[in-house]
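> call design_seq(struct)
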């Protein structure tokens, strides 16, 4: 009995370690990834304790489900970011650029907002946002630099970035509790010059990662700007929650009929699942080319203008989880 107990204990510990380890596969953005976040109140918010076994209790935080940002990752098409290969965007003024390998995730810039000031960063020396594999106490520091654009003016910046996995534990949000959470803290300091103005941008992000969910389930982000009108602003967001509590990755858990396949005109998608909300089609480069909402579990997709070839699809739930993936063929 004692040996069985020790074996179970060892297995539990191993599962905990795996759940709290970030890798390129379960952390870095990849073409076709989709997620949504709600804005939350930031008044009197604190990041909570660090270290192992922490409990981060935000069960009373106010969530504004009417303020939602829907993000999609796709291959980079902006030639201003030649060293990045993935863009994560919720709109034309909210795009971030990345490149990942099995050893790290690099951030090449994009849009940032500092109070009333909108800016764009373009890194020639990127910030390392993660060193893989990433577990408790993992720490990576990088030296950064590049171009900064504010209100039509072009400048430059130099600085540094530090990312550390500083805590593991349980995260409690309204309607959802996550165990085996890894908290990652990213700090960036950018010393900039725009025209005759110099100043400092400081960004501090607390991202809480739960097993089975690629994007952070909770984020506390504080940005401070000096030199061009001092301002400090804190944003708090949470991953769009499941209506049944704890969010789970439910990929390939529904039956979906796709016919005719191959097709030269229309393809029908049909399912009995009431959770299926939409179908997104991707080309071979992972770029999303069309999204259709399901009505009563079905939708007809016109592929008559598609180029001949193989496409992939993802069926997304009303809580923004992938329910099914597959391939379809277009032949004219």
């Amino acid at each position: 009995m004692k040996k069985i107990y020790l074996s179970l204990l060892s297995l539990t510990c191993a599962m905990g370690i795996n759940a709290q380890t970030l890798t390129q596969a379960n952390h870095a953005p990849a073409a076709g990834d989709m997620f949504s976040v709600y804005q939350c109140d930031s008044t009197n918010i604190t990041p909570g304790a660090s270290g192992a076994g922490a409990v981060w209790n935000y069960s009373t935080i106010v969530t504004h489900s009417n303020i939602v940002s829907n993000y999609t990752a796709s291959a980079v098409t902006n030639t201003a970011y030649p060293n990045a290969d993935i863009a994560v965007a919720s709109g034309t003024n909210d795009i971030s650029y990345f490149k990942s390998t099995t050893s790290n995730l690099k951030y090449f810039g994009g849009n940032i907002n500092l109070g009333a000031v909108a800016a764009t960063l373009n890194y020639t020396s990127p910030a390392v946002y993660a060193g893989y594999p990433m577990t408790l106490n993992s720490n990576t520091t990088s030296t950064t630099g590049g171009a900064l654009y504010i209100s039509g003016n072009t400048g430059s910046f130099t600085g540094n970035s530090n990312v550390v996995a500083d805590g593991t534990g349980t995260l409690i949000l309204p309607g959802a509790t996550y165990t085996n959470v890894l908290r990652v803290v990213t700090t960036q300091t950018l010393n900039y010059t725009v025209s005759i103005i110099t100043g400092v941008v400081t960004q501090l992000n607390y991202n809480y990662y739960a097993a089975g969910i690629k994007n952070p389930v909770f984020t506390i982000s504080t940005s401070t700007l000096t030199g061009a009108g001092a301002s400090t602003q804190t944003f708090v967001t949470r991953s769009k929650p499941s209506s049944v509590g704890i969010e789970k990755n439910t990929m390939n858990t529904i039956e979906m009929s796709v016919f005719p396949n191959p097709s030269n005109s229309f393809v029908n998608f049909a399912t009995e699942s009431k959770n299926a909300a939409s179908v997104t089609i991707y080309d071979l480069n992972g770029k999303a080319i069309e999204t259709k909402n399901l009505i009563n579990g079905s939708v007809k997709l016109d592929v008559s203008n598609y180029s001949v070839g193989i496409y992939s699809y993802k069926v997304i739930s009303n809580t923004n989880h992938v329910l099914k993936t597959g391939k379809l063929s277009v032949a004219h």
